[in-house]
Amino acid sequence: MASRQFLILAGAAVVISCNWFWFIWAIGQGRATEASLGYFIFPLVAVHLGRIFFGERLGALQWTAVGLAAGAVALLTWG
């Protein structure tokens, strides 16, 4: 494995480890709802980051899926 690949993988390992640490910490603090909402919201953020940074275009069915996911997150947040 090239050193550049190793650094990328090591960085990804650190980031995912921090992610899991904070998730488990939040559950331990009685913040399960807030921690879960972070996981529910992330796919929506990833879609928009893909549109911004990679110029990805969404079709009608994909926009429908994003809308349903956003509606579900809103329902869980305020419902």
From TrEMBL:
PROSITE patterns per UniProt: PROKAR_LIPOPROTEIN
Pfam family, one: EamA
Matching InterPro entries: EamA_dom, EmrE-like
Topological relation to the membrane, as annotated: Multi-pass membrane protein
Annotated transmembrane regions: 6-25, 37-54, 60-78
Subcellular location as annotated: Endomembrane system
Principal subcellular localization: membrane
Leader peptide range in chain numbering: none
Coiled-coil positions: none
EamA domain span: 5-77
Domain of life of the native organism: Bacteria
Record key words, sorted: Membrane, Transmembrane, Transmembrane helix
GO CC annotations, alphabetized: membrane
Family to which this protein belongs: Belongs to the EamA transporter family.
Protein name: EamA family transporter
The species this protein was found in: Staphylococcus pasteuri_A
Phylogenetic lineage: Bacteria, Bacillati, Bacillota, Bacilli, Bacillales
